[in-house]
Specification:
This protein is mainly alpha-helical. Helices cover about 65% and strands about 0% of the residues. The protein is built from nine helices and two strands; from the N terminus they run H-H-H-H-E-H-H-H-H-H-E. The two termini are about 35 Å apart.
């Protein structure tokens, strides 16, 4: 039986997600249909709906899949301490975004928050809050304003980059991101082990 907990179910889901990613490379999101995905993945509509509520649900699950890929990239990186918010620390993320730019171009179109949800907790607890405290900011509400400023700027930089075909080299974009970080978040240079 093909249930949510067996490998066949997961393999079918992966095949449909791969079909969607391939279609996204050449088709505007508004023109993608369940029918096109099913034809490409060689499954029927009932199979699609056994896995996803609709195309938007599929995109959300695909974002989770790409997040896991990104986290594996960071986990595989050397575990030496590095300066937070360094240009080098942004490069794996930017390479990932460029590799899947067709997905992120759609995903960032209406984005109002940081695109990698798993990054919130560690970034808040290990970077934003301690840096704000070192700068004398004790109100978590005030800290949140700095965090929101960083998220919004970072997201809009990524959106512009993918909208322009990722033409600017990753290192240049990393430098721009680094220069746009609120001053309070990098007043004091600290070394910290951090992974998304």
């Amino acid at each position: 039986m093909n249930t949510k907990n067996n490998q066949r179910f997961r393999d079918t889901e992966i095949r449909m997600e791969a079909a969607m990613l391939d279609i996204m490379k050449h088709t505007e999101f508004e023109k993608i249909t369940v029918k096109k995905i099913c034809e490409k993945a060689q499954v029927n509509r009932s199979t699609f709906y056994a896995h996803f509520m609709d195309i938007y649900d599929m995109v959300d699950k695909m974002e989770d899949l790409l997040n896991a890929e990104l986290l594996e990239t960071y986990a595989a990186a050397p575990r030496e301490e590095h300066l937070i918010f360094s240009e080098e620390s942004f490069l794996p993320f930017l390479r990932h975004i460029k590799k899947h730019s067709y997905f992120y171009r759609i995903n960032l179109r209406h984005r109002k928050s940081f695109p990698i949800r798993q990054g919130y907790g560690p970034m808040w607890n290990e970077i934003i809050k301690p840096q704000c405290e070192k700068a004398g900011i004790t109100s978590e509400e005030d800290m949140m304003y700095y965090f929101i400023s960083f998220q919004a700027g970072f997201t809009m930089i990524l959106k512009h980059w993918v909208d322009t075909g990722c033409r600017k080299p990753e290192a240049d974009v990393a430098a721009i991101i680094r220069n746009c970080i609120p001053a309070v978040l990098h007043k004091e240079k600290i070394n910290i082990k951090y992974q998304l």
